Fold these 2 entries.
Entry 1:
Amino acid sequence: MRSKIVAGNWKMNKNLDETRTLLAEISAKLPDTSAEVMVAPPFVNLNGAVNALDSSVIEVVAQNMHFAENGAYTGEISANMLLHIKVHTVLIGHSERRAYFGETDELLARKVAAALAHGMRVIFCFGEELEERKTGRHFEVVKRQLKNALFPLEAVVWKSIVLAYEPVWAIGTGETASPEQAQEMHAFIRQTITERYDHTIADAVSILYGGSVKPNNAKEIFSKPDVDGGLIGGASLVADDFTAIVGAI
Ligand code: PGA
């Protein structure tokens, strides 16, 4: 059985005090669940979050990392630095990284490979833009993103990969993909992985949906057979909303 996961992507929000406050609220309101629950604060607050959550079931994950071991990469963070502060999971390929920081499929392939080589777990984010969906190219785009960044990988590392399908037009816009659109794409993703690898890998990988998931739509989206949870942006910054979404799974 693949894991159910609800992960909160805090993006560039919350200072250290606010981070501690929000984590305390989330911890207090967290419903009993068999799902994995994760939060991704900004780099500067990761250590504080790990310490604040000490023996909690909530896992702290990073929003990004560099592919190099160390060196002259001003402003960047390496896998070793994350592991040293007990952060074992990293988001790679978020659409905001692609759009605002010029991250290409080729760069993302290097980041994914580096994270996996360090034994980290990767939540790989991808999804089409509005224009691509309008012109019927969404399947083609998603396939290309998978192919370029993940399909060079050996089958054995797929146990450390989680996918997050996030149509760009649904991120932060209040417009969600319908549960049917999410299911259709998630099924397509599994089929594409089956073609490159096999059924076992395609069936075992958790595929999260992201893009305006809120307490009032989470249950319906999560009820689809190929949707294994969510990557939550805006609603993860409000303890009541985030814990309600966890409850919905
Ligand atoms: P949103 O963001 O829930 O605010 O749409 C999702 C994401 O960017 O991961």
Note: The radius of gyration is 17 Å.
Entry 2:
Amino acid sequence: MHLHLRDGEMLKLAAPHSAADFAGAVVMPNLVPPVNSAETMAAYRSRIADAAGTFAKDFSPLMTVFLQKQSYEELENLKTAPGFFAMKLYPAGATTNSDGGVRDFGEAEETLRAMEELGIPLLVHGESNGFVMDRETEFLPVYRNLAIRFPKLKICMEHISTAAALPLLGEFENLFATVTLHHLLYTLDDLAGGLLNPHFFCKPIVKRPEDRAALREAVFGGNAKIMFGSDSAPHPVSKKECAGAFGGIYSAPVLLPALAELFEKNNALGMLNDFLGGNARRIYDLPKATKKIVLEKKTQRVPEIYCGADTETRVVPMLAGKEIAWSVSER
Ligand code: DOR
Ligand code: ZN
């Protein structure tokens, strides 16, 4: 329910990885220039289908549009556009390519009101610029405010990363959340406990062990308001292993096997299907996926790097060089 596919050569490298294993994905619009209209969305959707190649036929990209100050008419038009799913709100400058985002929530008031009326979900990137560690805590009042002011709007907190965010789900009927695999696996120690490892650097930043434990408890306990959102976000190795490294973990190629391994270790395999799709289907009234894949308990080693068609498109995946106890054995 939250995926970065990029564009150009990177899209060609990344799209088949997701399209092979998944029936669909919510595609994030933070390109340069951003996907911010029905036209740019339709064009991007067709580039995704091209890049997914033979996997495109059973992969549905659920398209999102970058929330700026779209009018009621624009939203009405978007609502009927093929593949349109939701609007994505980025506070300006919060993450990769988000400079055109909203600076003050007041300026989005009319757009949000129109979305509420038209039944268009709002996906919120849950951070603002400022403090590193406490960003999410700082952002919680924003969610609370949105939930109160727009009670009929379905609002998703895109990948929560702290224990502090969880009570909001119980408090507001119209608030939902995605959780990534990396926030279930890693903490600040992985990122910077020893030598700094930029491959663990993502937004929101991985947090403390107690945050990870709370997220695990909620997910393995089957909280029906939490959906899996991979936030798989490829960056070329030249933009990760450098000063001024970009945030983003490229998890797409390992997601299903690594999730199976984690859920099995926690005696929660029975919860995996709902986390991956069932909860989202119920929350957003999505059609049931017909695609089937088989996960088998068979060890595999993750490649050290994936290389695209040009020298710049080289990406280090999550768990590079490591073994995973599960594999996708049939697609
Ligand atoms: O780590 C991240 N990378 N988090 C985001 O929200 C954006 C993403 C990206 O686009 O690189
Ligand atoms: Zn993201």
Note: Residues 2, 4, 28, 231, 233 surround zinc ion (ligand 2) (CB under 6 Å).
